[in-house]
């Protein structure tokens, strides 16, 4: 939340140079407050687990959030009961006439397919284009980030020689953007993917800024220069046992999979995983919700300006 300070306070200049969010009393007195409307397009097969992870993080702030869960009508979910989708989810067609303060698009287990080969790609591209005018701020996760970077900026994904799997240290490239406010010099986040977004592709696009990366896991956080699109290539929302479950699943299926890196103490899968990303996850989501959505979105969503890029 912002700090309200007098304009004459000496600390104000220092904090503003660090991009700490300050608010003058006149603005504080005239703020209109209402629940934030957040849409979540949940593309993960384990929909109930994913929605729980995301709602836990969104609920860890003092802001009031009204969530609309979305699914792709052009895709038949095999791992979630139809009754759950009918009761709790809406299709894109049902909300396309509405406007939202924020949108989250999750990862999906389709990264080894070309984007155009994904069965719901036409519907997803419609939604991404709609978000440019009907959503104030968007947060894209893992494959969702790759899909949005491709649709908006023409940035491709590239196959990796082996799955990027584990918990990796990351460093900030830009310190004073509000989405990374309060991050440690080195922070951890889980990754679980077969493809990557390359830093040279991000650096070559003037409408994007690389905010954080890892020597081992590569590009991590990218932001559009208008600060209304945030792309996260990992899974900070994961629970303590999510990578453990994916590891056991791949072993059962006979897939080539190594131990998740930096996850089990002494690389012993019989021991409880070590969680080193929970603080970062909460900070990432609270920064997005506060700085990118609550403090910036207009009170009247009917006045949303267009955002983002289009390849």
From TrEMBL:
It catalyses: L-homoserine + acetyl-CoA = O-acetyl-L-homoserine + CoA. Its EC number is 2.3.1.31. Pathway: Amino-acid biosynthesis; L-methionine biosynthesis via de novo pathway; O-acetyl-L-homoserine from L-homoserine: step 1/1. It is found in: Cytoplasm. Its main location: cytoplasm. The record marks 111 as: Important for acyl-CoA specificity. It comes from the Bacteria. Signal peptide: none annotated. Transfers an acetyl group from acetyl-CoA to L-homoserine, forming acetyl-L-homoserine. This is Homoserine O-acetyltransferase. The lineage of its organism: Bacteria, Pseudomonadati, Acidobacteriota, Holophagae, Holophagales.
């Amino acid at each position: 939340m912002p700090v309200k300070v007098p304009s004459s306070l000496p600390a104000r200049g220092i904090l503003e140079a660090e991009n700490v969010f300050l608010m003058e009393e006149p603005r504080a007195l005239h703020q209109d407050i209402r629940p934030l409307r957040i849409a979540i397009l949940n593309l993960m097969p384990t929909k109930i687990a994913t929605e729980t992870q995301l709602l836990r993080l969104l609920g860890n702030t003092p802001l009031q959030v009204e969530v609309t869960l979305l699914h792709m009508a052009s895709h038949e979910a095999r791992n979630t009961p139809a009754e759950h989708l009918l009761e709790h989810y809406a299709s894109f067609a049902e909300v396309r006439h509405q406007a939202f303060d924020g949108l989250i698009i999750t990862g999906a287990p389709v990264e080894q397919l070309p984007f155009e080969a994904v069965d719901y790609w036409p519907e997803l591209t419609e939604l991404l284009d709609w978000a440019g005018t009907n959503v104030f701020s968007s947060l894209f996760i893992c494959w969702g980030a790759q899909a949005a970077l491709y649709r908006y900026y023409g940035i491709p994904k590239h196959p990796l020689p082996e799955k990027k799997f584990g918990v990796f240290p990351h460093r900030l490239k830009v310190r004073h953007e509000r989405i990374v406010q309060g991050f440690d010099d080195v922070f951890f986040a889980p990754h679980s993917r077969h493809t990557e977004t390359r830093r040279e592709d991000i650096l070559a696009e003037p409408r994007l800024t690389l905010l954080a990366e890892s020597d081992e896991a590569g590009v991590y956080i990218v932001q559009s220069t208008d600060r209304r699109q945030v792309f996260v290539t990992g899974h900070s929302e994961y629970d303590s046992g999510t990578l453990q479950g994916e590891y056991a699943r791949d072993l059962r299926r006979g897939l080539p999979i190594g131990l998740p890196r930096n996850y089990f103490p002494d690389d012993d899968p019989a021991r409880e995983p070590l969680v080193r990303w929970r603080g970062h996850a909460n900070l990432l989501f609270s920064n997005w919700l506060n700085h990118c959505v609550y403090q910036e979105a207009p009170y009247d969503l009917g006045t949303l300006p267009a955002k983002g890029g289009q390849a």
